[in-house]
């Protein structure tokens, strides 16, 4: 009987351990002097420098100023972040404060019902919320409820090497046909790959596709197609857009499908490549490599294109709070998005921020400040494509883009797959 | 009373294997997202989608390529290596080579993937530089960026990492073979090659079976290598079933369909294991 009891106790203990293992509460603990310590789980997507160190420093500063708070930080890069945050949502293990893209990415997270509604928070503290550029909230607001605080702003343009352009008597192109002439001239001048992209990064392909489709297609068409409930993707403009992307990859050489975007950026920074499609967020990274005098030009207008030729691809990123986040997490978020933090952030990292007074000539390089003015004066913003459409559609385009670059598929085949998937999504 | 002794392992197995397995079958009949709280009943629709999924065909083909190449390298070549290292001539250097061959097994797959990323780098990779050095520069290519070569580049990395582990199992099996058998074969005039086929291979049959089973089921489940090196790309050219399942679930948010893919992987590995058990006749009294 005793033995039986022991075994039953052991089994129950085993179960208890398993249950404990799956517990997601971070809760609080006791400090050295017996005071309550509130633990905040903070998750962002920059394990790389300089941003990692910046956030580590900010965490340290916050914890020194608030000894009753302990911040547990975790960081993984871009695509891995997208996957991990999904896993955390599905296992009800969402961190208290975490970074998020805007538009469909944010909307997906919101649909989990695990994200904090920030309306009252923004209303209560106007001193803080009024300091954030209002237009940037759009990508985090769904059905009149705001779920995210925008922090960084960005734009995607072609960076070009001024020295190479001057040497070969070339101008920044204003139309797609001129752009092709520029690429041909550079090839004739000995640059086998005048344009390079790290096509192993699916998101980099999506940035191209999103911009090209925005230039080529009628905004009314994309508005319908980018909605999973109404999308059909039957407009011939998509084929034309994919043909444009295919043509551009023909200038990238066969290394592009084997390198990542960082490598492409470094090649540009080292003066090896004349043109790379990059985000303003990368200005400082290029400047840090040193030695390249660069300028920008927006993706040029496409002949017969029905979209705004001056639109700028780029959308803000920001912070979200989980529904169960303690008030200390809210306070930490306010600290992260304060004018002081934002100003220092741009000075350290180079990326532009969405906080009023957070960017001026004192904390940016001339190139960054020029970028800031371009972003604020853009005729219209175009969201990142992989956040604008359903991920199942984006994935076909992104992988299709890789296959186009390696000559394994055709624009028609890609669109056939997209149309099939879109039809299925409509019925789901 | 004695059934209680089995209880802890039954509980652990049920918690981590059987219940998730049953849950997975249940989930495959639904369409749901990690973000939503509701599941939509779709019955066998996910299985219908699977039958027309072109990516599944590519993934299965890649898994079978993995299995065939792995059986050759990790079973056949590893057995030959083990036999050579156990030969009297190599007795002195064998410990050194055993360590050298086993070393990759102990290194994290992420580190190895990073290392092979450098080896395969199209600009300054060791492989292309080596080909240049020996005058075969024209055969150099962006190994991971080419739809034809990507899967083979990934498979090659796996062979390099796993061959040592399989070899060690064979070494243990060879050491258990009675010396008299080799002596008798030698007296009958059998050379090293003949001894290998007539003594070693039949005597390590159990180990061959175990290693083949490990290798083939491992090939059907392979995830880390293609995921880290190529993420299944370019396009879907180096995708495997496990990567496809993961991406459907955690990238594209089709959890029901990902469960369906998991069932396919489970059925495949179970069938292969059963076939091998039947064919090898292991476990039966001689």
TrEMBL record, chain A:
Name the source's superkingdom.
Answer: Bacteria
* First and last residue of the signal peptide: 1-22
GO BP annotation list: transmembrane transport
Keywords, A to Z, come to: Signal, Transport
Gene3D superfamilies on file: Periplasmic binding protein-like II
One Pfam family per UniProt: SBP_bac_1
Keyword Signal listed? The answer is: yes
Q: Which family does it belong to?
A: Belongs to the bacterial solute-binding protein 1 family.
- Tell me the protein's name: ABC transporter substrate-binding protein
The protein's organism comes out as Sutcliffiella cohnii
Automatic annotation (TrEMBL), chain B:
CDD domains with a match to the protein in the record: TM_PBP2
The alphabetical list of record keywords is: Cell membrane, Membrane, Transmembrane, Transmembrane helix, Transport
The record's PANTHER family line, in alphabetical order, gives: ABC TRANSPORTER PERMEASE PROTEIN, INNER MEMBRANE ABC TRANSPORTER PERMEASE PROTEIN YCJO
Q: Which SUPFAM superfamilies match?
A: MetI-like
> What InterPro entries has UniProt attached to this entry?
ABC_transporter_permease, MetI-like, MetI-like_sf
This chain belongs to the protein called: ABC transporter permease
Name the source organism.
Sutcliffiella cohnii
What's a Pfam family in this record?
Answer: BPD_transp_1
């Amino acid at each position: 009987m005793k033995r039986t009891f022991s075994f039953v106790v052991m089994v129950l203990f085993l179960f208890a351990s398993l249950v404990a293992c799956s517990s997601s509460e971070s809760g609080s603990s006791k400090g050295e002097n017996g005071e309550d310590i509130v633990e905040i789980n903070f998750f962002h997507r920059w394990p790389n420098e300089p941003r990692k160190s910046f956030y580590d420093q900010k965490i340290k500063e916050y914890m020194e100023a608030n000894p009753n708070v302990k911040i547990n930080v975790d960081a993984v890069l871009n695509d891995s972040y997208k996957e991990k945050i999904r896993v955390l949502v599905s296992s009800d293990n969402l961190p208290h404060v975490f970074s998020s893209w805007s538009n469909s990415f944010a909307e997906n997270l919101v649909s989990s019902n695990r994200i904090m509604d920030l309306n009252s928070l923004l209303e209560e503290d106007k001193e803080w919320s009024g300091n954030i550029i209002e237009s940037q909230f759009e990508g985090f607001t769904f059905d009149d409820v705001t779920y995210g605080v925008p922090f960084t702003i960005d734009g995607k343009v072609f960076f070009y090497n001024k020295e190479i352009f001057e040497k070969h008597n070339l101008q920044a192109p204003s139309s797609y046909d001129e752009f092709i002439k520029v690429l041909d001239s550079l090839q004739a001048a000995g640059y086998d790959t005048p344009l390079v992209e790290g096509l192993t990064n699916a998101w980099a392909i999506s940035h191209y596709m999103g911009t090209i489709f925005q230039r080529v297609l009628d905004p009314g068409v994309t508005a319908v197609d980018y909605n999973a409930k109404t999308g059909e993707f039957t407009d011939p403009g998509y084929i034309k857009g994919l043909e444009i992307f295919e043509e551009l990859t023909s200038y990238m050489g066969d290394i592009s499908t084997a390198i990542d975007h960082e490598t492409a950026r470094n090649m540009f920074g080292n003066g090896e490549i004349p043109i790379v499609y990059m985000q303003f967020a990368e200005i400082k990274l290029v400047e840090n490599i040193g030695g390249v005098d660069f300028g920008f030009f927006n993706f040029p207008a496409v002949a017969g294109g029905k979209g705004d030729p001056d639109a700028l691809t780029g959308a803000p990123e920001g912070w979200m709070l989980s529904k169960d986040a303690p008030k200390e997490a809210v306070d930490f978020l306010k600290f992260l998005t304060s004018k002081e933090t934002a100003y220092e952030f741009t000075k350290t990292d180079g990326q532009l921020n969405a906080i009023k007074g957070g960017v001026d000539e004192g904390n940016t390089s001339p190139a960054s400040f020029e970028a800031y003015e371009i972003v604020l004066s853009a005729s219209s913003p175009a969201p990142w494509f992989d956040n604008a459409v359903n991920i199942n559609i984006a994935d076909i385009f992104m992988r299709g883009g890789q296959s186009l670059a390696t000559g394994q598929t055709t624009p028609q085949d890609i669109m056939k797959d997209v149309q099939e998937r879109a039809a299925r999504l409509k019925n789901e | 009373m004695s059934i209680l002794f089995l209880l802890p392992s039954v509980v652990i197995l049920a918690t981590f294997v059987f219940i998730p397995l049953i849950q997975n079958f249940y989930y495959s009949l639904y369409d749901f997202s990690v973000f939503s709280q509701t599941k939509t009943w779709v019955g066998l629709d996910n299985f219908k989608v699977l039958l027309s999924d072109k990516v599944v065909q590519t993934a299965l083909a890649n898994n079978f390529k993995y299995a065939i190449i792995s059986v050759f390298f990790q079973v056949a070549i590893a057995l030959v290596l083990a036999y050579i290292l156990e030969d009297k001539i190599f007795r002195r250097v064998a410990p050194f080579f055993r360590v050298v061959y086993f070393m990759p097994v102990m290194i994290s797959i992420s580190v190895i993937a990073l290392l092979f990323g450098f080896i395969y780098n199209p600009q300054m990779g060791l492989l292309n530089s080596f080909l240049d050095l020996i005058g075969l520069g024209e055969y150099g290519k962006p190994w991971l960026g080419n739809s034809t070569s990507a899967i083979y580049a990934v498979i090659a990395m796996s062979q390099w990492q796993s061959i040592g582990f399989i070899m060690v199992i064979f070494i243990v099996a060879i050491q258990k073979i009675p010396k008299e058998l080799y002596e008798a074969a030698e007296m009958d005039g059998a050379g090293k090659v003949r001894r290998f086929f007539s003594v070693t291979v039949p005597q390590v049959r159990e180990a061959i079976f175990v290693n083949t089973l490990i290798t083939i089921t491992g090939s059907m489940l392979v995830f880390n290598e293609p995921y880290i090196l190529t993420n299944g790309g370019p396009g879907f050219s180096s995708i495997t079933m496990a990567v496809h399942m993961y991406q459907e679930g955690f990238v594209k948010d089709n959890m029901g369909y990902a469960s369906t893919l998991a069932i396919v992987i489970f059925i495949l590995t179970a069938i292969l294991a059963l076939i091998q058990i039947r064919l090898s006749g292991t476990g039966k009294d001689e």
